[in-house]
Amino acid sequence: MRYVIKLAMAAALLGGGAGALADEPLPPPARPDKGDLQARKALMQEFKREQRPEPRKLVGTILAVDIAAKTMTIATLDSTNVCVITPETSLAQGHDSAGLKDFKVGERVAAICQQAAGKLNALRIRGIEKEIKTRLADGKKALKPPKSGDKPR
Questions:
Q1: Number of helices followed by number of strands (H, E) in the chain
Q2: What is the DSSP string of 49-97?
Q3: pTM over 0.85
Q4: Rounded CA separation 8/89 (Å)
Q5: Are 70 and 96 in contact (CB under 8 A)?
Q6: What three-state secondary structure class fits 5?
Q7: What is the pLDDT of residue 80?
Q8: Across the chain, what does the average pLDDT equal?
Q9: Domain 56-137 maps to which CATH number in 3.40.228.10, 2.40.50.320, 2.60.40.10, 2.30.42.10?
Q10: Burial level of 7, CB count in 10 A (0-12/13-18/19+)?
Q11: What's the rounded mean pLDDT across residues 98-124?
Q12: pLDDT value at residue 143
């Protein structure tokens, strides 16, 4: 009990009475404005995009295959986008020299490329015609759009 009385006396000396402390509402916690948060999120997303550009899909024709250097050059039909498989990206994705022998000059391929060091590096690549042939050989359905009368299974 003595402890409570001493606390009350100390509060009275400091703040003008124990009742005055209890009556004052606490200030709300400081929170940033929602507009500030959204602007900060937008800046962070833009910064991340600049750091790591998004991969682009590229459908084109193989211009050159260099098995010794483990590189392959792919260009779109209008030759504005040229994608090169370099040893770093090709080996990381499992494209070794034996895998590059499967691709021939003039074959149409689909690649997912990413901008790096001033050129497009292919992250993944697949042959379009080759995939359709292997699907048919494996007995799977061919890659074609469903007819309007077909029902999903």
A1: 6, 5
A2: HHHSPPPEEEEEEEEEEETTTTEEEEE-TTS--EEEE-HHHHHHTT--H
A3: no
A4: 73
A5: yes
A6: helix
A7: 56
A8: 62
A9: 2.40.50.320
A10: exposed
A11: 62
A12: 47
